[in-house]
Structures are given as C-alpha cells and as structure tokens.
Amino acid sequence: MDYNQTVHLPQTDFPMRAGLPKREPDMLQEMYDHDLYNKMVKRNEGKPSFVLHDGPPYANGNIHIGTALNKILKDIIVKHKNMTGHYAPYVPGWDTHGLPIESAVLKDKKVKRDEMTTAQFRTKCREYAESYIAKMTEQFKRLGVLGEWDNPYITLLPEFEAKQIEVFGKMAEKGLIYKGMKPVYWCPADQTALAEAEIEYADDPCTTIFVKFPVRDDKGKLGQYADLSKTYFVIWTTTPWTIPGNFAICLNAEFDYVLLQVPSGDVYVLAKDLAESVCKAAHIDYEACQVLATLKGSEFELMTATHPLFDRESVILNGEHVTLDAGSGCVHTAPGFGAEDFQICQQYDKAGLTHIGVPVPVNAKGVMTDERYNGQFYAKGNDMVVEDLEK
After folding, report:
1. How far apart, in Å, are the Cα atoms of 302 and each of 298, 339, 355, 363?
2. How far apart are CA 186 and CA 188, in angstroms?
3. Domain 19-173 class?
4. What is the domain partition of the chain in residue ranges?
5. Bigger pLDDT: 194 or 244?
6. CA nearest to 130, candidates 107, 108, 161, 157
7. What CATH code would you report for 209-390?
8. Closest CA to 342 of 237, 217, 185
C-alpha cells in the first residue's frame, strides 16, 4: 500500500528539495523582471519617508566579504522600512575619485604614467571606474539587493562635480576660501597626497642620531659661561635624510636647559632632564661632566646655530610641542617635512621675527634636490647624510 495516499497533504508546486544553488538565480531574476523595487517603493508614496544615505564603495575592484556584508545589512534596513509602512527609496552610488583607483590603474603594466598627460591619465581612471561600476552592480544584484540600479549616483558625473563647484563658489563668496600652504602626507610611489585615514603605522627599523649644531650667534648670553667655539645645540632625529631640510631648532620656553661640559671639552645645550640619557646614548661619562649654567628655553630664542652640512644658519625657536619624552629637548625643525615644524616656522615668519619660508629639498618622487644630495632617493640619502655627519 502507498501510505502517501492515506495522508491528507496540501497540493503545492513546491519541489521536494530546496536546490538553492540552482533556484536562487531564477528567484532573483524574477524580482528584477517584475520590478519589485519600484512596486515596493511606490506602494508607500506619501507615507513617512526614510532615506538611507549610502556611503559609497570605491569602484576599484570586485566586491569582497566586507563590501557584501555592508550592502546586505543596508538592504535589510531599507526593505524593513518599506515593509513597515515607510517611503524608503534606495539610491546606490560609487566613489570614483582618489588614490584607490589611481593605484589600481598604475598596477596595469600597459599604463605608463610618465608618458601620459594628466587628462589622459584621468581618462584611464574613468574607464577603469566605469568598468567596475558595471561589474559591482551585477554582483550586488546577485546578492538580492534592491535599489535604483539604473539611476545610481556616481561622483565622476558632471552634475555631481558641478554641485561641488557650486558649494565651493558659495564658500568663496563668504570669504571662507584662501590660498595658503599646509603639510600633507605624500606617497612618492604614487606621487599623490594621502589622507590621514590612508596612513598605516608599523614598527620600522630606523637610524636614530644626535647631531651637534655649533652655536653661531648667542645674542651675547652664553659667552660668559662657555667657550662659544666649542658650544653646540644637540638635536635628535630618527630621519637623518631630513637634516638637509633643517632651518631651525625648537626648545620649550618653560624647560630648564643646561650648558653641559663633557670630558672632551665640548659644551652641549641640552634639556636638563634629558642630559643624562643623552650622555648614556653617546657613551659619555655623565658623572665626569660639569654643568656650567642652567637657563630657561626662552633665553635661547632667536639665537642661531650653524648647520652641520651647509653654510647657513638654523635659528632657535620656542615651541610648546617640544617634550621630554625622548631626545635632547632641542628639536630638529625642517618646515618642509613636518606638520609641527611647518606651523612653528610659519608662526615666527608671520610675526616678522624670521624669514624661513617652506624649503622642501625633495621632489614628488622622493628624490632629494639640495645641492649636496641632488638626485639621490631619500632612503639612500639617509645613509649618505649619516656618513657625512660622521666625517
């Protein structure tokens, strides 16, 4: 006996097996064939609205698990709002400007950036972005995400760029726009500025050095304590290649600084609290040293020192960014290489106390351009600077 015939079961078209790998694409296609998204949204016209402002993905590659999770979670929210009586349209979009797309294009060995104009390179980037917009659209649709896929917002479209120009124009009318300089992160490989969020820090082996800058003009204050021909400001740095960009030395006005005479007869200007640690690092017997004088950092302001590699002055400035965490208390200051360096030098220049400017002795490719190391990649220049300082 067939016992199936003795059980009262509903008669349906449902198959016995789910078979999702085979059936799911057909189910999704049916959603799009029947324009389910527009029907869902239109049904709630006039009801309270809910708009999800989608932070767009970069159009620089196929979607990955993070992209998929992001879009699926947003799709759940939009569908839930539509199903609970809200007018909840969803307009997907793409970010098509910036380093990720430029980097992806540069990885194509057929693209020779140095042989292209800026306009030609932008065209390549646009074509690349557009190709991935099409690919990612199909991938999102395969995930079952509903939205206005035929009418996305794309940042490279003229109407979006025009809107940005419109906002910029209004800011200019209000006097909020000015032309000036500021420090930015720079990538010599891609030759482009980097946002702070794009910077990833990691432990990196570096060369740590202390450098003597001979006192040049003491403003008549130090000669009474020491032989000026043997007196030096001692700076500390982990980036020797930036020494050619040094135009100042910063001391903290509130800290105590000592004129420390070491057994060789030299006199070093150091933060009082760091003098012993500097001597230890330099293999100098601290107990055999003599403190000739103790002065506040403010006493040294606008004195000058001689640059150890070039025939020019480095002026002594006071800055609150100088700390006692490490180093010597005398901070190597290169306005073309550091944010705080730039800011303190600008502050003194604007006050008319100095005329340092913003010298940047390295080009966009990371190649040094000063008269001594011209043509050397900065990483190689690191070793050369150390060697010359030792000599």
Report:
1. 9, 21, 12, 30
2. 6
3. alpha beta
4. 19-173, 209-390
5. 244
6. 157
7. 3.90.740.10
8. 185
